[in-house]
Design goal:
Number of domains: 2
Radius of gyration: 22 Å
Helix content: 40-55%
Number of strands: 16
């Protein structure tokens, strides 16, 4: 590759899946590429542009219309994060299938050097193959989770065998419907030029990088994270996701600053997980019994009537509980909260983004997985890396809207015990804190020049430029007769 070609930026299209847990990390990765001088365009729908900061040089936006009327949705409902029930979720899913045509039309008129698309798009492999555009897949799961998903089941559906750490027993068996949905997407992912992972080698482990590539026949895994660390300033962290918090950032940080170091429990279950009032009440009682102060993010209900929302709150809140901490209804600046020295633990659904952000901030976690890949990520955090404790969740939901009643309600006693294990002092808690602090330092070093993720991105950009130039040469050669 000559100097001129090496200096010419790549023209890259990023297509994030329409769910906050997929969109935010892929947009962070897009910013990483743009910050290294590549020409990046993010393709999404109008309502999802608020999630993306397009003010950076070399970062551009292209919107395609979401087919709301075709699938029977009101205007503005264009992502799973804005879905209130299973019926709406299904309609969003149907709308995503119809995005192929406008995206293909755009790419036919404006070819790219490479497309980086979420693996969840069922049509992306056919589209890029038809247009002869190289594709990289983005998978929001940790590499450990991908290896576990592909691994053989042991004597029971809970047992995963053949991993570098030996057999690992999940706390719940994946629903058959989930497996049937994900496995074809994972097979198509292997047709890409590689998979991008928002993690870092020191967390997932060099042994899992080798295991993945060996068991997939050489499919390349590029670990580029934690991409959230591209948000360097307090303003960038506060505006990540571009949602508006019900409490001002200054008020939140001022409240946290009045607390002792590592004394506050942060509770957040993302935008897709919801619980019955019975489970919320047990959760509140368990936290209250542990005697810790807290910041608890409760997703705003998508119900439409304010008085109904108020009634819902009163059903599960113990009397006087809210005065003992801070409850945020809606969105919260998670990166700023986790980065505050008063936060001593994170009670989380173990979504891959939340778990990674906690590790990056050096905050130990209490794992309460609910759906998707969260039961796999739980084992990475607790058994493999030892940076958290399990609350004992055993119910694997398919997700998509509010669950009126859990089959198994986790008791306040279990919740209190898990909180006290991390925040009540003792040797176990200190060991966990030491491990997560060390991993946090490694996470921040990974994205700096010379770090593992920084070097991976450098190598990936060079690889894509070589691929671009070889394609240019082959396309300019006369046909053989």
């Amino acid at each position: 590759m000559d100097v001129e070609s090496e200096q010419r930026p790549l023209k890259l299209y990023f297509i994030p899946y329409l769910a906050a847990g997929h969109m935010i990390p892929l947009c962070d990765i897009a910013i990483l590429f743009a910050s290294r001088g590549q020409h990046v365009t993010i393709i999404t729908t109008p309502s999802n542009t608020t999630t993306i900061d397009s003010s950076l040089p070399n970062l551009h936006l292209h919107t395609v219309p979401f087919p709301s009327r075709q699938v029977g949705l009101p205007d503005g409902i264009e992502s799973f994060s804005s879905s209130a029930d299973l019926q709406t979720t299904f309609k969003v899913h149907q709308g995503i299938k119809l995005l192929r045509e406008p995206i293909q039309l755009f790419m036919e008129h404006h070819p790219a050097d490479c497309v980086v698309a979420d693996y969840c798009f069922p049509w992306i492999d056919d589209l890029t193959t038809e247009l002869h555009i190289p594709r990289l897949s983005f998978n929001p799961s940790p590499l450990f989770a991908l290896c576990a998903m592909r691994a053989k089941r042991g004597s029971s559906s809970f047992l995963i065998s053949g991993l570098p750490h030996g057999d690992i027993a999940l706390n719940a068996s994946p629903p058959e419907a989930l497996t049937a949905c994900v496995e074809p997407l994972l097979r198509k992912e292997l047709k890409s030029h590689g998979v991008l992972i928002n993690s870092f080698v020191e967390l997932d482990g060099h042994e899992y990088v080798k295991h993945y590539e060996r068991t997939t026949g050489g499919h390349k895994a590029w670990l580029l994270g934690p991409a959230s660390l591209v948000r360097g300033t307090a303003k960038e962290k506060a505006e990540r996701g571009h949602e508006k918090s019900v409490v001002s950032t200054d008020e939140l940080l001022s409240w946290l600053s009045t607390k002792k170091p590592s004394s506050v429990l942060y509770v957040c279950f993302g935008s897709m997980c919801s619980f019955s009032n019975e489970q919320l009440h047990e959760m509140a009682c368990g936290i209250e019994a542990s005697s810790v102060e807290f910041v608890w993010v409760v997703p705003a209900e998508k119900r439409g009537k304010e008085e109904e929302e108020e009634e819902e709150k009163e059903k599960w809140l113990p009397e006087g509980f809210e005065e003992k901490g801070m409850i945020l209804r809606g969105w919260a600046p998670q990166l700023l909260i986790l980065g505050h020295p008063s936060v001593g633990a994170f009670l989380t659904h173990c979504g891959s983004n939340s778990a990674l952000e906690a590790v990056s901030a050096g905050v130990p976690i209490i794992t309460w997985p609910v759906l998707g890949d969260q039961f796999y990520t739980e084992k990475l955090m607790t058994e493999v890396r030892g940076v958290g404790v399990e609350v004992g969740a055993e119910e694997w939901s398919m997700g998509g809207g509010r669950r009126e009643r859990e089959r198994v309600v986790i008791s306040r006693d279990k919740i209190e015990k898990a909180v006290r294990r991390l925040m009540g002092g003792g040797e176990e808690a200190e060991q966990i804190r030491r491990r997560v602090h060390e991993l946090g330092n490694l996470a921040n070093a990974a994205v700096q020049p010379g770090g593992s993720s920084y070097q991976n991105l450098t190598a990936l950009i060079a690889h894509l430029k070589t691929l671009r130039d070889s394609n240019s040469v082959s396309s300019s050669m006369p046909p053989l007769h």
